Amino acid sequence: MKKKDILAAFIIGEACALIFLLVLGLLEVPAPLLKLTGFLPIILPVFSILGIFVVSLFEEKIPVFFQAGKSFLVGILNTFIDLGILTFLMETFRIFAGFPYVLFKGISFGLATINSYFWNKFWTFEKREIKEALKETSQFYLITLGGLLIHLGVSSFVVNIVGPQFGISERLWAYFGAMMAVFCGFAWNFLGYKFVVFKK
User: Cβ atoms within 10 A of the Cβ of 51, count?
Assistant: First the structure.
């Protein structure tokens, strides 16, 4: 495992911890519970580095497994960015459903996608060339557009069509819809980035 992989994993873990703590603050989580999460800026980077170390053991024999591990870690950061921005918008405007929810989800997904491009290009797939940057960027955003449609379709279906179930509040159901969208979009994005956008 290279030093840059350790540094990248540390940065991702630290960023996820800070975004999570900010989200908890926006959700007005009780102070005692917030104190329990004070260890996250230490523990999440450690887990990130440990995870990258484990998948790096397969780098020589199964390179795609190492790339998938890095992409998964980038996907976790994207999820935190996505949900962090979504939370900020929903909690600021106190809107958790309808067309504004779809708009908020589109904005949060779009900003997380910008982050995804740079991390996947330079770290996951280690593409340094700039000669085909326009083609590569176009392909990335086409794949990502498919991911956006999956995100919006799944989250809108869960939130606006299925609606809250099992006595769960509209607010929590909105987050459940967002998480379902994340799981459905990850495989699409990784395969598209690996075999179309950043192929070698």
Answer: 18
Residue owning tokens 């991911």: 147
What is the CB-side half-sphere exposure of residue 50 using CA atoms within 13 A? 6
In degrees and rounded to multiples of 5, residue 165 shows phi and psi of -125, 165
> What does 129-178 look like in DSSP terms, one character per residue?
--TTHHHHHHHHHHHHHHHHHHHHHHHHIIIIII---TT--HHHHHHHHH
Q: Which residues of the chain have pLDDT under 50?
A: none
* CA–CA gap between residue 165 and residue 73 (Å, rounded): 30
Would the pTM count as exceeding 0.70? yes
CA 129 to chain centre: 25
